[in-house]
Amino acid sequence: MLSNPTLEKMKELNLLGMAKAFEDQLKTESYKKLSFEERLAYLIEMESLCRDNRKLASRLKNAKLRHGACIEDIDFTDGRKLDKNLILSLSKCKWIKEHRNVLITGVTGVGKSYIACALAHKACLEGYTALYMRVPKLFSELAVARGDGRYPKIIMALSKIDILIIDDWGLSKLNENERKDFLEIIEDRYELRSTIITGQVPVKKWHELIGEPTFADAILDRLIHNSYRIELSGESMRKIKNEIKDEPKEKDKK
After folding, report:
1. pLDDT value at position 254?
2. Strand partners, 165
3. Which of 101, 172, 194, 203 is the most buried (most CB within 10 A)?
4. Kindly report the CA angle at 120 between 237 and 72, in degrees rounded to 5?
5. Residue 21 burial by Cβ neighbours in a 10 Å radius (0-12, 13-18, 19+)
6. Residues 6 or more apart from 251 whose CB is under 8 A from it?
7. Distance between CA atoms of 238 and 168, rounded to whole angstroms?
């Protein structure tokens, strides 16, 4: 008689994992052989697992990762010059605990964004927060926010994210406001959070890209000295995938 009211109370208290586990216990005879403590422990374990899964789903949703990428699916083809040992080391997330950065460069299509998203995905699995943003959208949103009063709020929010991915860095030289915005973001995160930057322009040309020497020195000093660098080469991964897709099947060759 108490079963249904108990289930309803669990759901009312948002104990959804516990409610599901309790329903399983009611339907399965084998659970009756367990002691009260064992059954209670199972309910609590299932509730904890359910909450962890909801938190993970929320972190991944808020991260807005461009690719559904994971470390296991990264292509370590020799021509890419991608250090597998380095990637596996980064996948342990120690670099995040140490508040270090990752700078990924290479020509278009070689998989810079994918690797960045794979590292962020692994970080989300480990309980860290992440956010993916392309440079044009980042600066555009900050420009609008400066006008409507949301600027401090957005800068504060960016400073609290464990891993911030800044993608498509270096598409054009920074203007005065963009230099100030970028320094503000990097300064707030320096030695407190980790940043991943991807771009086609080699790191040695970033000083010129930023423009004003004083700002360039300040930004690069905070970005580069504690960073891991990944310099990709080889053909575009998009081109390779398209070529594979377009290859005639064996029966078509005959």
Report:
1. 46
2. 132, 196
3. 194
4. 55
5. buried
6. none
7. 16
Distances (CA, A) of 96 to 64, 85, 91, 108, 158: 19, 17, 10, 26, 16
Count of residues making up the chain? 254
Sketch the domain layout of the chain as residue ranges. Answer: 3-60, 64-240
pTM: 0.83
Residue type, 125: L
- Report yes or no: 167 and 73 within 8 Å, Cβ to Cβ: no
What CATH number should be reported for the domain whose range is 64-240? Answer: 3.40.50.300
Map tokens 């040992």 to a residue: 85
State whether residue 34 is helix, strand or coil: coil
pLDDT digits (tens, 9 = 90+) for 129-152: 999 999 999 999 999 999 999 999
Question: What pLDDT, on a 0 to 100 scale, did the predictor assign at position 199?
Answer: 95
CA distances (Å), 167 to each of 59, 70, 102, 108, 250, in order? 19, 17, 12, 12, 39
67, two tokens: 């690719």
Given this model, what pLDDT does residue 76 score? 86
- The pLDDT assigned to 1 comes to 42
